[in-house]
Amino acid sequence: LERAAAIAVLGGHPPYRAMEGAFLFQAGWAPEIWILSPVLPRESKILAELGIPSAEEEQLNRMILERLGVPPSAIRVLPTRVKNTYEEVRLISSLLQGKEPNRVILVTSKVHSRRAGATWRAVVGRSPRAIVRFAKKDPFDPAFWWRYTEDALAVVRELVGLLNVWAGFPIQPDVRSAENREERTKRSSPEIR
Hints:
Elements: E1 6-9, H1 16-26, E2 33-38, H2 42-49, H3 57-67, E3 75-82, H4 85-95, E4 103-108, H5 113-123, E5 129-134, H6 149-166, H7 178-188
Parallel strand pairs: 1-2, 1-4, 2-3, 4-5
Helix pairs in contact: 1-3, 4-5, 5-6
């Protein structure tokens, strides 16, 4: 680890990434924490139509950070919603322009740490610099990933993601319009009343 301009908590896996971000902040590695805002899953809209509130990930991460003693003034929720690691890296690197030190600590899960670093190097290069840190309390066990379905699926997803990085990102996020997604949802599920 080195001191950085910010600690960026990448999207996914609350509470582990935010917990690690709080630990790094408390240890003095950076003066602020950036929380990424993922694109809302299509299920969120359906839940809203049903009148069921769903907590957004960035809200959960903010609550976790504050509960662990990070002052609200040191927490910055990034307003741009992102779909994937590629978009997270582009957003974070653009926000680092003109910051000193010109580096960020990316907090992610154990299984995602290699791809996060590879994505940063492929998209940004070596400057500004990213230090990838995995969440220590993340329950993923790399020595026995093959024992549990969830861990095995995570490894397969990361391998496909790494191949995508190494191939120059030929696989793109789902950019089909929200209307097309809604239409597919209506055809495949019973009507909400």
